[in-house]
Amino acid sequence: xxxxxxxxxxxxxxxxxxxxxxxxxxxxxxxxxxxxxxxxxxxxxxxxxxxxxxxxxxxxxxxxxxxxxxxxxxxxxxxxxxxxxxxxxxxxxxxxxxxxxxxxxxxxxxxxxxxxxxxxxxxxxxxxxxxxxxxxxxxxxxxxxxxxxxxxxxxxxxxxxxxxxxxxxxxxxxxxxxxxxxxxxxxxxxxxxxxxxxxxxxxxxxxxxxxxxxxxxxxxxxxxxxxxxxxxxxxxxxxxxxxxxxxxxxxxxxxxxxxxxxxxxxxxxxxxxxxxxxxxxxxxxxxxxxxxxxxxxxxxxxxxxxxxxxxxxxxxxxxxxxxxxxxxxxxxxxxxxxxxxxxxxxxxxxxxxxxxxxxxxxxxxxxxxxxxxxxxxxxxxxxxxxxxxxxxxxxxxxxxxxxxxxxxxxxxxxxxxxxxxxxxxxxxxxxxxxxxxxxxxxxxxxxxxxxxxxxxxxxxxxxxxxxxxxxxxxxxxxxxxxxxxxxxxxxxxxxxxx
Length: 498
Prior knowledge:
Elements: H1 3-10, H2 15-18, H3 41-44, E1 47-51, H4 77-81, H5 86-96, H6 100-108, E2 113-119, H7 146-159, E3 163-170, H8 193-210, E4 216-220, H9 231-246, E5 252-255, H10 260-268, E6 274-280, H11 286-289, H12 293-301, H13 303-314, E7 319-324, H14 330-333, H15 338-359, E8 362-365, H16 380-385, H17 404-421, H18 432-447, H19 459-474, H20 481-497
Helix pairs in contact: 8-9, 10-13, 12-15, 17-18, 17-20, 18-20, 19-20
């Protein structure tokens, strides 16, 4: 039985039990935190991925063909839906844009996850009432075949060991004024009770459906919302609404609304699994116009690295860059020969990857490909062909050498006891050794996982869950909780370095 069919058979229930009008075959996920195991690796590992841009939420500059019959400004899914032969146009695009060859390429290049942008209107088949009172209400038939294709794509990713971050890229009324919010024009999400209700309904449906699927690594609540006084309150109330459905350990991703400093502190104060998403582009502003790739790389390794690292620390490492690219302003490098332009992009990408690998729990390049024949700034496939975007993966795979654990554990414990015996003692030095052992074993789980070698990306969140398991089994750690965490994280580092 296919993976999703098997999972769906486990979560069937009456629609009334889900609390989602117009839905069927859904129930709430369990709220308890079972012991961490191999299935949890998908959500906690260091994410290295690519966006499947313009597959379900279309963007004219990426895939212009479906917009030829669009109405209005020809910039959004709503424009396409209002145009000629919209259903046939969209279904043809959904069935042909991402191919088996693309999936194979993603896996071969070492990526371990994809980010999948979707719109609330794609849920009309399983959740018919989601469109009521919204701009898409009269276009339900156009999008009736979307959800079955979305679930098929999630299943395909899982069969290849890839995680999927499902991103609500387009909310009812639009959360920003770009066409990729599903509609063109002024954003109208937060000024309309109907749009807010529809978006809430969409997210509750998605949380209910996705949380039981191990390789669904998270749900992003909104993509790039325009910053306003409503965002934080909406995040808080929406997360509170979703947690009884998906539990505290299902990752919910929130975009920083272009204020990473503020939201890093906010995320860091939460106990549940919430991840902050920051998008980094360097090709749109007047400042970008005056800089080449070498200069951007120098900036990323200089002052910005300190700022970004500080934000990651405030967020307890619960930070990702879900969109970035190799694109540089034509005004900065357009006068250079093609080969020299690629050299600048290469250095820019190198600096970005160094920054993200050190400070985040993951990243996703925007985007997999474009319809145009060549664009090494925005197409991951073209950037890889030009040797701008390197193949990714772990430096060390498989189990460490025999005896490495015992050797490093003994030295680490000896150093720990020796330091504290000379510095006033510690609450409970006996906690260090079992914590170190558990940390080593967990890092080994990631390093030898059947879906591919990885490291723990969201280490602080994983540590908190593992510590809770230890305390439940041993009656707590008391004042020595820091000592357990210290030993655990040293064990992780020991295994990763062996």
